[in-house]
Design a protein that fits this description.
The structure holds two protein chains of two kinds. By secondary structure, chain A is mostly helical. In chain A, 78% of the residues lie in helices and 0% in strands. Chain A is built from three helices and no strands. In chain B, a hairpin with a 2-residue loop joins β2 (74-84) and β3 (87-95). The chains are: A mainly alpha, B mainly alpha.
């Protein structure tokens, strides 16, 4: 029988992978995808809670998060493109100053 | 008592103030021009203002004289000056016989000195500035005299202090003269502090005992309504009187606060005349007479005043013997004569003290203006050992100075005789025999040093031939005041002829409604007559000694150089003592503790180290701001983890 704990452990693991990606990787796209991973880890725990507590609230939150993630992806990718145009680089550490 | 009001009174001080403002503005307008403001205009304003004030003063005097003696009090209120809690101080002026007398002296003699100054300062670049100060000086003195309450008097009191500072240091480019101005001001501040404490004390006491007041008339009523002879009355009166007397000591140059007056000679000579005769130094005596109801209640305060007066009179007279600067001789004689006035006030014979203020104003103004005339003629030479034989060159100055010297030596029938003798007699009459003896001795010394100065200046032969050749009599604007003052010095004494000589002591009667009058004596009249003859003889002995020593053609240095001479020449080393005991330690304390310790180590260090602390903190914090997104993400992670941990532990502790 798969219990709530299993889902939550999976969610934590996914989240940890996401954090490691954000903090540790240098490529902008990887960082970006890691953020999506973290969001989805949270989504997983929402859904799991909703299922096991028999409440719809969790589902609603998931939709909300997915909508925000979509918007964020659109804007984030646009920013990445602009950054790349400026510096010809996708290395996060290259963008340590505000001015060009 | 009926209160008469008058609208004329305010013009007496106001006119000199307007004169001062006009000349001040003229000085500013013409500040850039080569010759300064037009001298005719400046002198017209400067002399006109006090002369008009003098006319008004005499008119008021006549009005006051027309009233019955016990009704002689006029007031003019110019509104409320300040009000806080129970303190209410009005801008009130008061004219009673005492202040009426003073305003006549101040404006009358002041006018003559202003006129004289037109001649004396004629070549000075600061002509208009000088008259601006001089008028302001007169104004301040008039406010002091006319003020109906202690704060008003204090304003005038401080005003003359400021003006004396400005005028003594008039030639401020000379550092010694600027320092003399400082000395006068600072020494006066010490006295003023006592005066202020006295005012505070009187206010606090009256506040707690039924009606806060600083008004002279109300204060007098207040003290008269207190239980007479009770310990509290005496204690309060003594404390207040002594505090006020400290103020009087500063302003009227009593030992040990007299040191400024000799240095005040640094100012132009007419200023010295104004300070010594009409304004400033008489303020202390006036104040003691004005607050006589306090001194009357306190035998201790009276004896202190009389003793300090005697000490000062003798002390200054002995110093004057050795001085070679003509103005310094006169300065010490003023200090000495002020001592006499305080003795008069101290033994309770206030009208005798005021009478000496009155006559002294005439002959001291005369002597100073005469000295100024000599100095002017001798091209700023002030050393009497370089003069001599000026009798032939300057007849007007010679004869007027002769009268002045006779007056101050107490030779009848000149003014000084009557007033000085009145004080001597009152001291004796009140059983202060030691004081009488010392003052008699002082009278002899006074005659001696005044005539020493006189003979050295005018008799004998010229000791500086070059300057003697160029000496000349002064212009009319300078000699006219001399003649008027000489006439005054000769006759004003007759206003106070005692009963003994067939007079009616008009002067004492005039002041009687204010300060009372001492009459009668436990001594026989023959004794009074003998004492009078004695004092004249002592004066003549002084003159005779001076004649024997100095009337002949004498060498150009002092014959005696004994140890006591050195002590007197150095004014008992009092300046040096103050320097060593007060000024040096104070300067050292300022340098070592206040400057190095407080200023540099504490205040400067605090100011300088504050930015250093912030620089250090921000330097440490700045390293966090790397600009690397991954660092921020990591920090955010730690933060989020910390918050999560916090809530976890909180929930854990709840279960």
């Amino acid at each position: 029988m798969i219990s709530l704990q299993h889902f939550l452990i999976a969610s934590v693991l996914l989240f940890a992978v996401g954090v490691a990606g954000v903090v540790g990787r240098k490529n902008l796209f990887i960082v970006f995808m890691s953020i999506e991973l973290m969001l989805n880890a949270v989504n997983l725990s929402f859904v799991a809670f909703a299922r096991f507590l028999n409440q719809l609230d969790g589902h609603i939150y998931v939709f909300l998060v997915m909508a925000v993630a979509a918007a964020e992806a659109a804007i984030g990718l646009a920013i990445v493109i602009l950054l790349f145009k400026g510096k010809e680089s996708l290395n996060v550490d290259d963008f340590s100053v505000m001015k060009q | 008592m009926d209160l008469h009001t008058t609208s004329l009174l305010v013009w007496v001080p106001l006119l000199p103030l307007l004169g001062s403002i006009c000349n001040g503005l003229l000085t500013l307008v013409y500040a850039k021009s080569e010759h300064g403001a037009p001298r005719g205009l400046v002198s017209a304003i400067a002399v006109g203002a006090p002369v008009l004030a003098c006319v008004i003063a005499f008119t008021l005097f006549a009005q006051l004289h027309g009233l019955a003696p016990e009704q002689r009090l006029m007031t003019q209120s110019l509104g409320t000056w300040m009000q806080a809690g129970q303190l209410k101080v009005g801008m009130d002026l008061m004219l009673d016989p005492l202040s009426a007398l003073m305003i006549c002296v101040v404006t009358g003699i002041g006018s003559l000195i202003h006129l004289y100054s037109v001649g004396y300062m004629g070549h000075d670049r600061g002509f208009s500035r000088y008259f601006c100060y001089l008028n302001l000086f007169t104004f301040s003195m008039l406010v002091l005299v006319l003020g109906q309450n202690l704060p008003m008097m204090f304003i005038g009191w401080e005003g003359v202090g400021v003006c004396s500072y400005l005028l003594i240091g008039f030639w401020f480019t000379d550092i010694a003269k600027a320092n003399a101005g400082n000395k006068a001001f600072i020494t006066n501040r010490i006295g003023d502090f006592g005066f202020l404490l006295g005012i505070f004390f009187l206010f606090a006491f009256t506040l707690h005992h039924g009606g806060a007041t600083l008004d002279f008339i109300r204060l007098q009523d207040f003290f008269h309504s207190m239980p007479q002879g009770a310990a509290i009355t005496t204690t309060v009166a003594t404390t207040a009187a002594l505090l006020l007397f400290i103020g009087a000591m500063g302003k009227s140059a009593q030992v040990p606060l007299h040191v400024w007056l000799a240095d005040a000679m640094a100012g132009p000579t007419p200023v010295s005349a104004l300070i010594h005769a009409a304004t400033m130094v008489t303020a202390g005596v006036y104040m003691v007479c004005r607050t006589h109801f306090l001194f009357d209640l306190s035998p201790l305060a009276q004896i202190v005043v009389a003793s300090m007066g005697t000490l000062t009179a003798l002390f200054a007279a002995t110093i004057a013997i050795t001085q070679t600067d003509i103005k310094r001789v006169l300065a010490y004689s003023t200090v000495s004569q002020l001592g006499y006035m305080f003795v008069g006030a101290g033994v309770g014979a206030y009208s005798a003290g005021m009478f000496h203020v009155f006559t002294h104003a005439f002959f001291k103004a005369l002597l100073f203006l005469g000295a100024g005339s000599v100095i002017h003629a001798m091209h700023e030479e002030q050393n009497i050992w370089k003069m001599g034989g000026l009798k032939a060159k300057m007849p007007v100055t010679y004869w007027t100075m002769l009268i002045g010297c006779l007056a101050i030596s107490g030779i009848p029938p000149f003014a000084g005789f009557f007033s000085k003798d009145e004080i001597l007699w009152q001291a004796f009459n009140h059983h202060h025999h030691v004081i009488y003896g010392l003052l008699l001795l002082t009278a002899g010394i006074t005659a001696y040093y005044m005539w020493r100065m006189f003979f050295l200046t005018f008799h004998g032969t010229a000791r500086d031939h070059h300057k003697f050749e160029h000496a000349h009599e002064s212009p009319w604007v300078m000699s006219l005041p001399l003649v008027v003052l000489a006439a005054g010095s000769a006759v004003v004494g007759f206003l106070g002829v005692p009963h003994l000589l067939g007079g009616s002591n008009m002067f004492g009667r005039w002041l009687e409604p204010v300060v009372g009058l001492v009459e009668g004596s436990s001594y026989p009249t023959s004794l009074e007559m003998n004492l009078m003859i004695t004092s004249v003889v002592v004066g003549l002995i002084g003159i005779g000694t001076a004649w024997a020593r100095y009337s002949k053609p004498v060498p150009s240095t002092e014959p005696t150089r004994a140890v006591w001479w050195d002590i007197l020449w150095n004014k008992y080393f009092l300046d040096e003592t103050f320097e060593a005991l007060i000024i040096k330690p104070l300067v050292a304390f300022s340098k070592v503790f206040l400057y190095r310790g407080v200023e540099e180590e504490a205040i400067d260090a605090a100011v300088n180290n504050t930015p250093r602390v912030y620089a250090g903190i921000s330097g440490a914090v700045r390293t966090v701001q790397t600009g690397l997104v991954r660092n921020y993400a990591l920090l955010m992670l730690f933060g989020a983890a910390a918050i999560a941990l916090y809530y976890l532990m909180k929930f854990a502790s709840l279960q």
